[in-house]
């Protein structure tokens, strides 16, 4: 990695995001999945979301050719799952509780939100592909989010103040580091 690439990664590590796991079935009918912090909402009408997947990922072909996939927005208690699906391993689904959703995708229970997507576009994005999905169904639950910041997973106490979501203890070091130093991201 060049010094510039390292600086680029370091700069990007300053951006806090939620954490998702994206799942699909590959052509052989095997469940596939990867952890992604690059999830973004894209359009309200039609309802589109996007996630960026490294072209070097083993699961890239499966997702680039899938006609549907599910995006799970993780809750604070799902850090273990984020780590499991964030590593290169073939057995991500072994011992992992999941079911087949109505849209025909592997669905992991317990997420804050699960978006069932129909593949809308696969766009080039350098060494990543941009998967654009049209949301066809969703399930939403209450709870606290899992966060990704500074190459680590965090939880964040949140309290509603004056009708808005305010961060309790922001700037005071109140965030709790959960686990993992994800040097690659
Ligand atoms: C918190 C976190 C966020 C990640 N975000 C992304 C991402 O947005 N895009 C991506 O391609 N890989 C991301 N990764 C890495 C992939 O999850 C990992 O490389 C993937 O599981 C590899 O899949 P494979 O086993 O099919 O190769 C992330 C990993 C972690 C732990």
Kindly summarize this structure in a few lines.
This protein has three helices and 15 strands. It has 185 residues and is mainly β. The protein has one domain: Roll (Pnp Oxidase, Chain A).
Written account of the structure:
This protein has 185 residues and is mainly beta. The protein has a single domain, classed as Electron Transport, Fmn-binding Protein, Chain A (Pnp Oxidase, Chain A). It is 12% helix and 43% strand. It has helices at residues 3-12, 60-65, 79-85, and strands at residues 17-18, 20-25, 31-36, 40-43, 48-54, 68-73, 99-100, 106-107, 113-125, 128-140, 146-149, 152-155, 158-161, 164-167, 176-177. The strands form 4 sheets. A 7-stranded antiparallel β-sheet has the order 3-2-6-9-10-5-4. A hairpin with a 5-residue loop joins strand 2 (20-25) and strand 3 (31-36). The longest helix has 10 residues, at 3-12. The radius of gyration is 17 Å and the shape is globular. Flavin mononucleotide binds next to strand 3, strand 5 and helix 3.
CATH structural class: Mainly Beta
Spell out the helices and strands N to C: HEEEEEHEHEEEEEEEEE
Which small molecules are bound?
Answer: flavin mononucleotide
Shape: globular
E-strand count = 15
What is the structural class? mainly beta
State the assembly state of the protein chains: single chain
Q: Segments where pLDDT lies below 50 for 5+ residues?
A: 166-175, 179-185
Percentage of residues in DSSP E strands: 35-45%
């Amino acid at each position: 990695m060049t010094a510039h690439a390292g600086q680029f990664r370091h700069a990007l590590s300053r951006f806090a995001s939620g954490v998702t796991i994206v799942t699909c079935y590959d052509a052989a009918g095997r469940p596939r999945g990867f952890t992604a912090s690059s999830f973004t909402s894209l359009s309200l009408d039609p309802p589109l979301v996007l996630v960026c997947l490294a072209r070097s990922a083993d699961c890239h072909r499966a997702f680039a050719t899938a006609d549907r996939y599910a995006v799970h927005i993780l809750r604070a208690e799902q850090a273990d799952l984020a780590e499991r699906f964030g590593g290169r391993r073939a057995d991500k689904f072994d011992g992992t509780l999941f079911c087949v959703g109505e849209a025909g995708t592997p669905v992991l229970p317990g997420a804050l939100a699960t978006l069932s997507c129909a593949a809308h576009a696969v766009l080039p994005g350098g060494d990543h592909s941009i998967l654009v999905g049209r949301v066809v169904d969703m399930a939403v639950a209450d709870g606290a989010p899992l966060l990704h910041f500074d190459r680590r997973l965090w939880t964040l106490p949140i309290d509603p103040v004056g009708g808005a979501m305010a961060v309790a203890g922001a700037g005071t070091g109140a965030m709790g580091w959960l686990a993992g130093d994800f040097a690659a991201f």
